[in-house]
Amino acid sequence: MNIPNQITISRIVLIPLFMVFLLVPFNWGELALLGATIPVHHFVAAIIFIFAASTDWLDGYYARKYNLVTNMGKFLDPLADKLLITAAFVSLTGLDMFPAWAAVVILSREFAVTGLRLVASGEGDVIAASIWGKWKTVSQIVAASSVLLHNIIFEMFAIPFHTIMIYVAVILTIFSGVDYFVKNKHVLNKSM
Protein backbone atom coordinates (compact mmCIF):
# COMPACT_ATOMS: atom_id res chain seq x y z
CA MET A 1 0.00 0.00 0.00
CA ASN A 2 1.45 3.35 -1.02
CA ILE A 3 1.95 6.38 1.26
CA PRO A 4 -1.08 8.40 0.04
CA ASN A 5 -3.39 5.45 0.75
CA GLN A 6 -1.81 4.98 4.19
CA ILE A 7 -2.44 8.67 4.92
CA THR A 8 -6.07 8.27 3.80
CA ILE A 9 -6.52 5.23 6.05
CA SER A 10 -5.05 7.20 8.96
CA ARG A 11 -7.88 9.71 8.46
CA ILE A 12 -10.41 6.91 8.84
CA VAL A 13 -8.60 5.49 11.89
CA LEU A 14 -8.68 8.91 13.58
CA ILE A 15 -12.50 9.13 13.37
CA PRO A 16 -13.25 6.88 16.40
CA LEU A 17 -10.60 8.70 18.44
CA PHE A 18 -12.14 12.05 17.47
CA MET A 19 -15.61 10.80 18.46
CA VAL A 20 -14.43 9.47 21.83
CA PHE A 21 -12.92 12.84 22.77
CA LEU A 22 -15.96 14.72 21.50
CA LEU A 23 -18.70 12.53 22.96
CA VAL A 24 -17.26 11.15 26.20
CA PRO A 25 -17.56 13.89 28.85
CA PHE A 26 -14.06 13.68 30.27
CA ASN A 27 -13.84 15.77 33.41
CA TRP A 28 -10.72 17.69 32.41
CA GLY A 29 -12.21 21.09 33.07
CA GLU A 30 -12.32 24.02 30.71
CA LEU A 31 -9.75 25.89 28.74
CA ALA A 32 -9.92 29.70 28.58
CA LEU A 33 -8.74 31.04 25.24
CA LEU A 34 -9.16 34.51 23.78
CA GLY A 35 -12.05 35.45 26.04
CA ALA A 36 -14.00 32.22 25.61
CA THR A 37 -14.07 28.89 27.39
CA ILE A 38 -14.15 25.45 25.88
CA PRO A 39 -14.22 22.02 27.52
CA VAL A 40 -10.74 20.52 27.22
CA HIS A 41 -12.05 17.31 25.66
CA HIS A 42 -13.79 19.36 22.92
CA PHE A 43 -10.53 21.19 22.27
CA VAL A 44 -8.68 17.87 21.92
CA ALA A 45 -11.45 16.57 19.62
CA ALA A 46 -11.12 19.72 17.50
CA ILE A 47 -7.36 19.26 17.15
CA ILE A 48 -7.85 15.63 16.10
CA PHE A 49 -10.56 16.65 13.61
CA ILE A 50 -8.45 19.45 12.11
CA PHE A 51 -5.42 17.15 11.84
CA ALA A 52 -7.51 14.38 10.22
CA ALA A 53 -9.10 16.85 7.79
CA SER A 54 -5.67 18.20 6.82
CA THR A 55 -4.58 14.72 5.72
CA ASP A 56 -7.02 15.08 2.81
CA TRP A 57 -4.75 17.68 1.28
CA LEU A 58 -1.61 15.71 2.16
CA ASP A 59 -2.64 12.41 0.56
CA GLY A 60 -3.74 14.17 -2.63
CA TYR A 61 -0.49 16.12 -2.79
CA TYR A 62 1.65 12.98 -2.49
CA ALA A 63 -0.49 11.01 -4.92
CA ARG A 64 -0.22 13.68 -7.62
CA LYS A 65 3.41 14.69 -7.01
CA TYR A 66 4.77 11.14 -7.09
CA ASN A 67 2.24 9.73 -9.57
CA LEU A 68 0.80 7.37 -6.95
CA VAL A 69 -2.86 7.73 -7.90
CA THR A 70 -4.56 4.34 -7.54
CA ASN A 71 -8.09 3.02 -7.87
CA MET A 72 -7.99 2.22 -4.17
CA GLY A 73 -7.08 5.84 -3.44
CA LYS A 74 -9.88 7.10 -5.70
CA PHE A 75 -12.29 4.99 -3.66
CA LEU A 76 -10.85 5.57 -0.16
CA ASP A 77 -10.22 9.32 -0.31
CA PRO A 78 -13.82 10.50 -0.83
CA LEU A 79 -15.04 7.76 1.52
CA ALA A 80 -12.70 8.99 4.27
CA ASP A 81 -13.89 12.58 3.72
CA LYS A 82 -17.54 11.61 3.96
CA LEU A 83 -16.99 9.44 7.05
CA LEU A 84 -15.14 12.27 8.83
CA ILE A 85 -17.72 14.92 7.94
CA THR A 86 -20.62 12.60 8.81
CA ALA A 87 -19.04 11.73 12.17
CA ALA A 88 -18.55 15.41 12.97
CA PHE A 89 -21.97 16.69 11.98
CA VAL A 90 -23.96 13.78 13.44
CA SER A 91 -22.02 13.97 16.71
CA LEU A 92 -22.34 17.75 16.94
CA THR A 93 -26.06 17.51 16.19
CA GLY A 94 -26.42 14.94 18.99
CA LEU A 95 -24.69 17.37 21.34
CA ASP A 96 -27.06 20.19 20.27
CA MET A 97 -24.09 22.13 18.92
CA PHE A 98 -25.04 21.91 15.22
CA PRO A 99 -28.50 22.43 13.68
CA ALA A 100 -30.11 19.18 12.56
CA TRP A 101 -31.55 20.77 9.41
CA ALA A 102 -28.05 21.75 8.26
CA ALA A 103 -26.70 18.27 8.94
CA VAL A 104 -29.57 16.71 6.95
CA VAL A 105 -28.98 19.04 3.97
CA ILE A 106 -25.23 18.42 3.98
CA LEU A 107 -25.44 14.64 4.40
CA SER A 108 -28.27 14.32 1.85
CA ARG A 109 -26.10 16.04 -0.75
CA GLU A 110 -23.17 13.76 0.09
CA PHE A 111 -25.34 10.64 -0.40
CA ALA A 112 -26.88 12.02 -3.62
CA VAL A 113 -23.52 12.84 -5.23
CA THR A 114 -22.09 9.49 -4.11
CA GLY A 115 -25.08 7.81 -5.76
CA LEU A 116 -24.49 9.80 -8.94
CA ARG A 117 -20.84 8.71 -8.93
CA LEU A 118 -21.89 5.06 -8.50
CA VAL A 119 -24.29 5.31 -11.43
CA ALA A 120 -21.55 6.96 -13.52
CA SER A 121 -19.09 4.26 -12.54
CA GLY A 122 -21.55 1.60 -13.66
CA GLU A 123 -21.75 3.36 -17.03
CA GLY A 124 -17.95 3.53 -17.29
CA ASP A 125 -17.77 7.26 -16.52
CA VAL A 126 -15.74 8.95 -13.82
CA ILE A 127 -17.02 12.12 -12.17
CA ALA A 128 -14.04 14.13 -11.04
CA ALA A 129 -14.18 16.50 -8.10
CA SER A 130 -15.14 20.01 -9.15
CA ILE A 131 -13.79 23.25 -7.77
CA TRP A 132 -17.19 23.79 -6.09
CA GLY A 133 -16.93 20.38 -4.47
CA LYS A 134 -13.53 21.31 -3.09
CA TRP A 135 -14.78 24.65 -1.74
CA LYS A 136 -17.76 22.81 -0.25
CA THR A 137 -15.41 20.47 1.60
CA VAL A 138 -13.29 23.35 2.90
CA SER A 139 -16.38 25.22 4.10
CA GLN A 140 -17.69 22.11 5.88
CA ILE A 141 -14.35 21.56 7.62
CA VAL A 142 -14.17 25.21 8.69
CA ALA A 143 -17.79 25.12 9.91
CA ALA A 144 -17.24 21.93 11.92
CA SER A 145 -13.93 23.21 13.31
CA SER A 146 -15.37 26.55 14.42
CA VAL A 147 -18.28 24.79 16.14
CA LEU A 148 -15.91 22.29 17.77
CA LEU A 149 -13.78 25.17 19.02
CA HIS A 150 -16.85 26.97 20.41
CA ASN A 151 -16.13 30.00 18.21
CA ILE A 152 -13.19 30.88 20.48
CA ILE A 153 -11.28 33.01 18.01
CA PHE A 154 -14.25 35.26 17.22
CA GLU A 155 -16.04 35.21 20.57
CA MET A 156 -14.09 38.20 21.88
CA PHE A 157 -15.34 40.26 18.91
CA ALA A 158 -18.94 38.98 19.32
CA ILE A 159 -18.86 37.65 15.76
CA PRO A 160 -20.90 34.46 15.28
CA PHE A 161 -18.34 33.05 12.83
CA HIS A 162 -19.42 29.46 13.49
CA THR A 163 -23.03 30.30 12.58
CA ILE A 164 -21.94 32.19 9.47
CA MET A 165 -19.81 29.22 8.41
CA ILE A 166 -22.71 26.80 8.88
CA TYR A 167 -24.76 28.85 6.41
CA VAL A 168 -21.80 29.16 4.00
CA ALA A 169 -21.28 25.38 4.17
CA VAL A 170 -24.97 24.70 3.51
CA ILE A 171 -25.08 27.12 0.57
CA LEU A 172 -21.90 25.73 -1.01
CA THR A 173 -23.12 22.18 -0.35
CA ILE A 174 -26.38 22.80 -2.19
CA PHE A 175 -24.70 24.73 -5.01
CA SER A 176 -22.01 22.11 -5.57
CA GLY A 177 -24.60 19.32 -5.50
CA VAL A 178 -26.74 21.04 -8.12
CA ASP A 179 -23.57 21.71 -10.16
CA TYR A 180 -22.64 18.01 -10.14
CA PHE A 181 -26.11 16.95 -11.29
CA VAL A 182 -26.42 19.62 -13.99
CA LYS A 183 -22.95 18.91 -15.43
CA ASN A 184 -23.50 15.15 -15.30
CA LYS A 185 -27.17 14.86 -16.31
CA HIS A 186 -26.01 12.74 -19.27
CA VAL A 187 -25.06 10.03 -16.76
CA LEU A 188 -28.62 9.83 -15.48
CA ASN A 189 -30.06 10.01 -19.01
CA LYS A 190 -27.84 7.09 -20.12
CA SER A 191 -28.87 4.92 -17.19
CA MET A 192 -32.64 5.37 -17.65
TrEMBL record:
Task: Report the membrane topology from the UniProt record.
Answer: Multi-pass membrane protein
Coiled coil location: none
Sequence similarity: Belongs to the CDP-alcohol phosphatidyltransferase class-I family.
The record's function comment reads:
This protein catalyzes the committed step to the synthesis of the acidic phospholipids.
Top-rank taxon of the source lineage equals Bacteria
Pathway given for this chain reads:
Lipid metabolism; Phospholipid metabolism; phosphatidylglycerol biosynthesis; phosphatidylglycerol from CDP-diacylglycerol: step 1/2
Keywords for this protein: Cell membrane, Lipid biosynthesis, Lipid metabolism, Membrane, Phospholipid biosynthesis, Phospholipid metabolism, Transferase, Transmembrane, Transmembrane helix
Q: Name the principal localization, coarsely classed.
A: membrane
Per the record, the gene is: pgsA
**Name this polypeptide is given:** CDP-diacylglycerol--glycerol-3-phosphate 3-phosphatidyltransferase
One cellular component term (GO) for this entry is: plasma membrane
